[in-house]
Amino acid sequence: MNLFPDRKKFYLIIFLISVTSILSALYVEFILEYKPCNLCIYQRIPYLVAIFISFIGFNYYKNDNILIILIIVFTLSTIISGYHFGVENSFFDELSSCSNYSLDLLNKKELLESLGTIMPVNCKDATFQILGLSLAAINTILSILIVVISVRSLSYEKN
User: Fold this and answer.
1) Which CATH homologous superfamily contains domain 7-96+106-158?
2) SS3 sequence, 8-42?
3) pLDDT grade, residue 153 (50/70/90)?
C-alpha cells in the first residue's frame, strides 16, 4: 500500500509542509523574537527550494526526476539539521560562524567597538523548543520522513 497513491497530492503536501515550516520559522523569529543562529538560517534554504520544486512537481507529476531532486533537497536538509542537532547536543564541534565572538580584547577601544556589533546566536543554544525538542531536532525528523516517503513513493511506482 502506497502512503500517497496520487503523486500530485504528495507534491501539494510537500508544498504545504514547506510553506508552513518557513512561516513558522519567521513567526518564531519575528513575532516571538527568538533570534536564529546561522545554522537555523541555513536550514530554511531546502524548504524554500522545496516550495518551487513541489510547485513544478504538482504540474509535471509524472516526471520522476522532479521527485529525485526533491529527495536530494531533503537529504541535504537532513544533513544540515542533523548536524545542527549534533552541535546542540555536543556530538559535533560547531562551525566558527556558529560560536559567539571571543572577547579577548586588549584595549578599551576594541572593547567599545565590540559593544557596537551584534553578537551571533550560538548554534549550541536551543532557546526555542516544542515538546522538549529543538527546531533542529524536529527538522531532522521531518526531513528524514519526507526522504523515506519520497523514496518509497518512487520505488513503489517503479514496481
Assistant:
1) DsbB-like (1.20.1550.10)
2) HHHHHHHHHHHHHHHHHHHHHHHHCCCCCCHHHHH
3) confident
